[in-house]
């Protein structure tokens, strides 16, 4: 399968939540399609049957800094280089639109993946609302 990652790929409102659930995440159905209206850009990949198999996006003010989130690859298509291609495409688009810094947070088990994809690990912080 050739990795034809497409920036701002047309995506139906339920496709990303369905993909999120396939990888064991909360679907966040209420976030879509609002996310597409608010983020800077997104990227996706479809398989031969036109099913969404990869997704990620960059959000922020669109000035100097962006934040990458939701790098998702369908479980059946993982370990094939799709995730790395997705991240690289998003970083190419970030560079094209003039972003100088892109950050993201990830579980430490994914450090080597993100290093391979061009990120430099660094310290940071996380605030989370208390439920």
Automatic annotation (TrEMBL):
N-acetyltransferase domain sequence ranges: 7-131
Superkingdom assignment: Bacteria
Listed PROSITE patterns: GNAT
Single GO molecular function: N-acetyltransferase activity
Residue stretches spanning the membrane: none
One GO cellular component term: cytoplasm
Pfam families per the UniProt record, alphabetical: Acetyltransf_1
Annotated keywords: Acyltransferase, Transferase
SUPFAM superfamilies membership: Acyl-CoA N-acyltransferases (Nat)
Name of the protein in question: GNAT family acetyltransferase
